[in-house]
Amino acid sequence: MSHILKTFPVVALEKVSDAYFRLAFEAPVLAKAVQPGQFIHIKVSEGWEPFFRRPFSVYRAQDGVVEILFEAVGRGSRLLTLKKKGDTLDILGPLGTPFTLPPAGVKKIVFIAGGVGVAPFMLFSDRIKAHKAEKLLLYGGRSRAHTFPMTAFKKNGFRVLTATDDGSVGVKGRVSDLFSAVAAAPSARIYTCGPRPMMGAVQAFARGHGLWGEASCEEVMACGLGACLGCSIPTAHGYRTVCHDGPVFDLNELVF
Ligand SMILES: Cc1cc2nc3c(=O)[nH]c(=O)nc-3n(C[C@H](O)[C@H](O)[C@H](O)COP(=O)(O)OP(=O)(O)OC[C@H]3O[C@@H](n4cnc5c(N)ncnc54)[C@H](O)[C@@H]3O)c2cc1C
Ligand code: FES
Q: For the segment 180-193, what is each residue's pLDDT rounded down to a tens digit?
């Protein structure tokens, strides 16, 4: 697939919780091309510092506008919190492999997300809102700061269950404490994204119940195009690059 490398105008930046920001920019070509699970590589400043682009999942893509949901964890993402309407963003994308859309006959679709790993699932839920399956989002966040009203997921037909480490929202505990909501559905399709230990727990759960699954991985990236091998991770078939062979992998193939 050909990539788009272009600057796009920022149309909005808002705080959706104490920890998360939503950044929107006008990019009709990109909005049309991107599939759920794919990411964009953003040059966060106009100069050479920081040198490498930063990867972000596409959170939403509609009406010609593309959005990301992000947490400010370091230099690059903090620079993104300073963007204003009218600024431009230099973007390369869409990159990487998308999630496999669930076939029509699937009875239960389960998203399991940890923290800002929820980002790719918004676009995914937009694209499958007409699917007849029971749809469930299990979300785990550290605290209230890492949660936000999941109204758009609910509008797309998802039941949302939340767990937080401190119990400030939903169940007190880990997202794995919500897995019992999935156990009764042998034909469930599981899609996960979040910290590696959480995805390891999802893999163990899916294996234990013989469930099909896919996982979107994160790794520090440089080129984003499969050239530098800097984002390689171990899989059952040897090392694979997250940017080019992933970020979406068969859950069962990952080595945690
Ligand atoms: C395919 C993909 C999709 C992503 N989607 C999102 C998203 O939708 N929203 C979001 O907030 N973040 C997302 N990330 C993570 C995001 O790219 C990093 O948070 C960002 O690059 C950090 O840049 P920084 O300059 O702010 O932090 P840095 O100063 O570079 O690093 C700050 C800290 O974060 C760690 N870190 C940096 N990059 C990553 C990474 N990729 N994975 C894990 N730890 C990292 C560093 O080791 C360091 O401890 C995604 C990453 C990948 C690979
Ligand atoms: S970042 Fe260069 S190969 Fe993935």
A: 888 777 789 999 99
